[in-house]
């Protein structure tokens, strides 16, 4: 039998290793500087988590799977299948909504509010039209159709009845007529609820046994095309911007960096479809609405740190188009220096061109900026992939060498320890998007997300919602998921992630000081 001394020595070594891990954890600094009130609050939060696990998840009936196998409910299970418990009963979610979250640094501006917001606005527009890629004449066609919306001038109409057998793809039908006719052709749901379902992921779509990340992205792209026409006209853009700002304040977010897409086909229509508003006009709308909103809050004795714009353009573009976009980004920075945060290339990473295709254009842009003493950091999407050893996977190398300030997603980064170490040494921050990565097939559940490996290596990270409209999520939901995915995540982990979001925002010293002082 092993001696008592040997067991004591073993246990002492075990405690020493665990203590070494705790002392070097990503949240160790926040923990070591905690006030008595923060320590008490963390204990209360831990009690809330335990109570949710027992009284909410533990009390919910088990779900039946293959061959009648029962599956208990638990925090950190698949997000879309857990929303019924998270939103209705989970006390931790109520806490997440009320906690100060710092800044929001990765939010795509066309998909950050519930779809019903844009659908309701569309109903008020006389020149709003809807099209389909097929006639809606059977339940199957209602399931499979790809819809698009557009504000059209009379000369652009191609009249058609979506519900008629002889309908030709992409003929236009007024949205008002569509809403009136819909109940006569589809008795299973109201037009509002059916359209909303077409814009958000269902659990079956995200987690089906045959689903892949590529398949999920196909559905995602179809939904963003549908969302585009609901968003790209003047009234919707102005109203959406205002409602987004209100949502930030409601979710206890002090500042955001938004990612609108700037490209010729994404320009805004006038409300009657008679003309277009160019990219500079889009910037003026954003600046006008934000300035008005902040002044109203200040008059009421409240503070909001505002937002900045990350100039985004699609990575599927040719190098000459990327060069033109970079030139426009630089021109915008000169016009509105306090409003442009940085530059990014967006879209499905594996389907677009890799960063190395644009090295010449990106290096030339950096030289132009340096020559004019202008700072426009690169904030690249990269590492949003399960691929290994491909050009997509290698975007991490180019983001590092191009001197990115932050990278979006970075899911693949832990599989590249040398790159990860260099990014850490250079202070490159990772914009985590946990729910988005799960729904789009990078991990089946939050517990398998790369974020915990990144945090274990003390890589600076922030929490973000990405395209929350399509996932029925807010930034509060992403913070909730980060908490329940790791048993020993606590208040100090939340606090460190919020503090890093302020540290790595594209703010000057005075702007950052103002935010942290409040």
Automatic annotation (TrEMBL):
<keyword id="KW-0479">Metal-binding</keyword>
<feature type="domain" description="Adenosine deaminase">
    <location>
        <begin position="213"/>
        <end position="515"/>
    </location>
</feature>
<dbReference type="GO" id="GO:0004000">
    <property type="term" value="F:adenosine deaminase activity"/>
</dbReference>
<dbReference type="GO" id="GO:0005576">
    <property type="term" value="C:extracellular region"/>
</dbReference>
<dbReference type="InterPro" id="IPR032466">
    <property type="entry name" value="Metal_Hydrolase"/>
</dbReference>
<dbReference type="GO" id="GO:0046872">
    <property type="term" value="F:metal ion binding"/>
</dbReference>
<dbReference type="InterPro" id="IPR006330">
    <property type="entry name" value="Ado/ade_deaminase"/>
</dbReference>
<keyword id="KW-0378">Hydrolase</keyword>
<dbReference type="GO" id="GO:0046103">
    <property type="term" value="P:inosine biosynthetic process"/>
</dbReference>
<keyword id="KW-0964">Secreted</keyword>
<comment type="similarity">
    <text>Belongs to the metallo-dependent hydrolases superfamily. Adenosine and AMP deaminases family. ADGF subfamily.</text>
</comment>
<dbReference type="InterPro" id="IPR001365">
    <property type="entry name" value="A_deaminase_dom"/>
</dbReference>
<keyword id="KW-0732">Signal</keyword>
<dbReference type="GO" id="GO:0006154">
    <property type="term" value="P:adenosine catabolic process"/>
</dbReference>
<protein>
    <recommendedName>
        <fullName>adenosine deaminase</fullName>
        <ecNumber>3.5.4.4</ecNumber>
    </recommendedName>
</protein>
<dbReference type="Pfam" id="PF00962">
    <property type="entry name" value="A_deaminase"/>
</dbReference>
